[in-house]
Specification:
This protein is α/β, with parallel strands linked by helices and about 750 residues long. The chain contains 25 helices and 28 strands. Helix 1 packs parallel to helix 7 and helix 21 packs across helix 24. The radius of gyration is 27 Å and the shape is globular.
Length: about 750
């Protein structure tokens, strides 16, 4: 450990690897030394550490009171049912008010009574489109996430499961034609229309020439020589040419661009995909994740993550992809505008950064011998990187020619798992202190609120008011939000099946409530109102059918797990004018969502688990989900992964998915639906299935392939973590999975040294 002294006399101990990184890589160019930076950190810990502990203790007290409330009702003879759930929710609401945890429903902040005063943000925040969440500790994924601002719709469509009857291997030509036909239909209906009701499929070449105003106009030519223009000429925004020959043109619809790459002479090739490529603007924003999608447990892990983030901000990061190709940050996209001037469009997503919340502590840095709140470390260092190193590049020194990530100089900090307006207010005060410590202008650090805890949902309007000059988005995280609901109300009865929870009253009302409150407060005037993740990362046919509901319901961004899903999801933002949807919603009466709906617990109908086989199958599926996620996390340090579920369908797993599974199993044990022995047997069977699924996979070490391993399975670190997550779902205030994951990952790392 490297030690420095504060003016107060207290010591700050820093893991050597972290100190060395800050000294040699982060600090240069900031005007500060490593000692300066860690001195600032130490002072922030002294100032905000006690308040952090106080807020966490309030969580403990609040949850204990709710548990006691339900237990006292049970002792008085109460028996919850699906029929009683609505009245039970109303009663709980009254209790929370009586205890001072909530204001009376009529006294809570009215989102119509105040206006967000967030400053004018970067252009991307006014664009409606997909948003990626990328793990910062995997360099290739970090680069791919940043570059997902643009991508081939042809490739995304061709490689998807859309129209599986046209096989991409055995029927390559037929599948290519299918892709061209479907994308042309989409373009005709949602992107641009030609004079004479002609289709993109009717045109064989394109040209550009000045109109009577001297501005460049786009024309298409049919096979018989007929020339037509666009019904909306203003959708044509630019082009490029080589030696006087048109090579590509750009159309814009709903504030998103589409790049049409042409063959020689401005032609199309009907036998080879029509256009050379059809490139869409898709992931206009991207969350660089230091939280749910990563496994960062020590200084070594944190340095790798910070180095990647520094490389993203500077634009010099490079990484080899899965197929061996070297990936680097895109240059900005240049083209000739309709007025003849050179225009530039950002080549990369606008990157925000998500650090951990109040409940996470770390020993990477210790102040006066005590672990510190990891959010203080993360926010300070990522803010310093984003403000001191975000300079863009003119293309020299082998760097891509690109503008800064934030042209306006903001740092977009996403804060997860805040539970109350009081906690939001504390985060605002912390941001103010970081700005002051680093000499930054007020409101440089902006706040993205993850509405993913029951408490946050109940206090959303008050939370927006507490941070009204800093909020750049509100986002629903239905996975964590479901885990939160189960834990908060776990004594309300046995919880419903996982696959049925998305349709539960609490969940549907929560999604509507987030959009309604955010709209009424004016979040969308400068920022985003977001929707949650597509979990099945390869189920694109399903995504195209289901995820269009996000823009239809007023969300102007929604999360996707990878670039190709992003490119496909971008189609929805051409199909739906979200701005118009939001205007209609603003002009309509507010959705009648009451607190009782948000508190209606999804009680299990016992008929769903009436037979031993049905119960065992369900329990096995939840146990398998946990083991499949926890194994790579604990044993290999993989924080987010696509793993096959119990039904052999690949799903994107992160901490939130396992918060749900652990909370369900714990709840069922509490209410006698399953026993501990049944849980243990399900975990053993799930591990056996996982061994079979991962047979021959590089890096996977079986857990059940010998008699000795079978006998001691429940002592395997990954399995101990699974069991502890389930136990914590009853004993901890929030059913977070991090304590168990971090504990056993650190043990595995220590054993390997």
């Amino acid at each position: 450990m490297t030690t420095i002294k504060l003016s107060s006399g207290m010591s700050v101990e820093i893991e050597d690897v972290l100190y060395a990184f800050v000294k040699s890589e982060l600090a240069p160019g900031t005007g500060k030394t490593a000692d300066d930076i860690f001195g600032i950190l130490g002072e922030l810990v002294l100032k905000f550490g006690p308040r952090n502990s106080e807020l966490l203790e309030k969580r403990v007290v609040r949850q204990a009171k709710i548990d006691e409330y339900y237990l006292s009702k049970r002792n008085a003879g109460w028996n919850p049912t699906t029929d009683s759930a609505v009245k039970d929710a109303a009663d709980l609401g009254q209790f929370l008010v009586a205890e001072g945890f909530l204001e009376p429903e009529t006294s809570s902040a009215d989102p119509n009574s105040f206006t967000m005063s967030t400053p004018e943000l970067d252009f991307e925040m006014s664009q409606n489109g997909p948003e990626l969440v990328t793990p910062v500790n995997i360099a290739s994924m970090a680069v791919g996430g940043a570059n997902a601002r643009w991508g081939s719709l042809y490739d995304a469509y061709f490689l998807s499961d859309i129209h599986p009857e046209v096989n991409r291997d055995s029927s390559r030509t037929e599948r290519l034609q299918m892709v061209v036909d479907r994308t042309n239909e989409y373009l005709d209906e949602h992107v641009a229309q030609w004079d004479g009701e002609l289709s993109f499929n009717d045109l064989v070449s394109y040209s550009v020439r000045p109109n009577f105003e001297g501005k460049q106009s786009l024309f298409g030519r049919t096979g018989n020589g007929t020339e037509v223009g666009l019904q909306r000429p203003e959708s044509f925004v630019g082009f490029n040419q080589v030696a006087g020959q048109l090579t590509e043109f750009f159309l814009e619809d709903n504030n998103l661009k589409v790049q049409f790459q042409l063959y020689d002479g401005g032609t199309v090739n009907k036998d080879n995909g029509q256009f050379k490529d059809l490139v869409v603007e898709s992931a206009v924003t991207n969350i660089v994740d230091f939280e749910d999608a990563v496994a960062i447990v020590d200084g070594e892990d944190m340095v790798a993550a910070l180095r990647n983030y520094l490389g993203l901000i500077r634009g010099d990061i490079q990484a080899y992809g899965s197929r061996g190709a070297l990936k680097a940050i895109n240059s900005d996209v240049s083209f000739i505008g309709v007025d003849g001037s050179v225009q530039t469009a950002k080549g990369t997503s606008l990157m925000s950064v998500r650090n951990v919340s109040l409940h996470m502590y770390t020993d990477m840095v210790r102040v006066d011998g005590q672990d510190i709140s990891e959010r203080i470390l993360g926010v300070l260092l990522t803010t310093l990187i984003a403000t001191a190193h975000d300079k863009g590049s003119n293309g020299g020194n082998q760097l891509p020619a690109r503008e800064p990530n934030s042209k306006k100089g903001y740092v977009y900090q996403v804060t997860p798992k805040l539970q109350t307006a009081e906690e939001v207010g504390e985060q605002v005060r912390f941001f103010e202190a970081v700005e002051e410590s680093l000499g930054l202008a007020k409101n440089t650090i902006l706040l993205g609120i993850m509405n993913e805890e029951l408490g946050m949902t109940l206090q959303l309007a008050d939370s927006l008011l507490a941070a009204q000059s800093r909020v750049f988005f509100t986002n629903t995280g239905f996975l964590d939000r479901t885990g939160s609901q189960i834990r908060v109300q776990t004594h309300a009865g046995p919880v419903d099946l996982r696959d049925d929870l998305t349709r539960a009253v609490f969940n549907t009302s929560y999604e509507l409530h987030n959009v309604d409150v955010s709209l009424r407060a004016g979040v969308h005037d400068q920022g985003k109102i977001g929707k949650g993740m597509q979990v099945k990362n390869r189920a694109m046919a399903e995504m195209m059918e289901v995820k269009i509901n996000h823009p239809k319901s007023g969300g102007n961004t929604a999360w996707v797990p990878a670039p190709n899903p992003s490119h496909l999801h971008s189609m929805h933002y051409h199909m739906i004018d979200v701005d118009q949807v939001q205007r209609t919603m603003e002009d309509s009466p507010s959705a009648n969502i009451i607190r009782r709906d948000l508190l209606t617990f999804p009680v299990l109908e016992m008929a769903k688990v009436a037979t031993p086989q049905s119960k065992q199958t369900l329990l096995l599926s939840y146990a398998h989900s946990m083991v499949a996620y926890v194994e790579p996390w604990v044993r290999r340090g993989i924080g987010c992964s696509g793993v096959p579920n119990f039904s052999q369908i690949e799903e994107m797993k992160d901490r939130a998915t396992e918060r749900i599974d652990g909370a369900i199993i714990a709840n069922w044990k509490l209410h006698g639906v399953v026993s501990q022995s049944e849980i243990d047997e399900a975990i053993k069977k799930a591990t056996e299935i996982l061994d079979e699924q991962n047979s021959g996979q590089p890096g996977y070490v079986p857990m059940m392939d010998t008699v000795e391993k079978r006998a001691s399975l429940l002592q395997e670190p990954a399995i101990l973590a699974v069991l502890e997550i389930i136990e914590d779902a009853l004993t901890s205030p929030s059913a977070y999975v991090e304590p168990a994951l971090f504990k056993y990952r650190k043990l595995v790392k220590a054993a390997a040294k």
